[in-house]
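Structure ticket #2291
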Amino acid sequence: MSSSSRPETGQGLVVLDRDGVINRESAEFIKTADEWLPLPGSLEAIAALTRSGFVVVVATNQSGVGRGFITRTALREINNRMNRDIEQAGGRLAGIFMCLHRPEENCSCRKPRPGLLHQIEARFGCSLRDRPVVGDSARDIEAAHAVGARAILVRTGNGTETEHRFDGDNSVEVYDDLAAVARSLINTGDAR
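Resolution: structure written out below.
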């Protein structure tokens, strides 16, 4: 399930996980738009990336829908709020790619499998090889590795706990939060 538009040729593409990267993580699932609370600096980070010419998309597992904890309508309202808040901060999402399946459905789109990232590649007509994929969980990093993307871990959400799993792994870049990632990408102009 996705919504997106095609970036102009040559623009850098950045893929973000949602929960724990843009907004607070919840073990109970984010079930309503009121429960969607952006992490400090995340909206401004997306705005800075947008102003710098990066195309920002979200790839997120939302199994709460498949498990019956959240309706598709509620998820649409959450995404609408996220888009509205990002736009009010001066940013823009070019697409939201979601896996709504339960883990036991064994689908190809649920991270750590790379299906969502392949959907992004198909939609935007590019490879994600060496492009930034930002997440807070091992499944985000594993999906990034599966497509040869630049795996970036943030310490927000589950990131601090996840960091220990990849300790000493030079294939994973680690930053405190999305704002730090955005500063690095903008300063180096390196989204590829």
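Closing remark: The CA atoms of residues 8 and 55 lie 9 Å apart.
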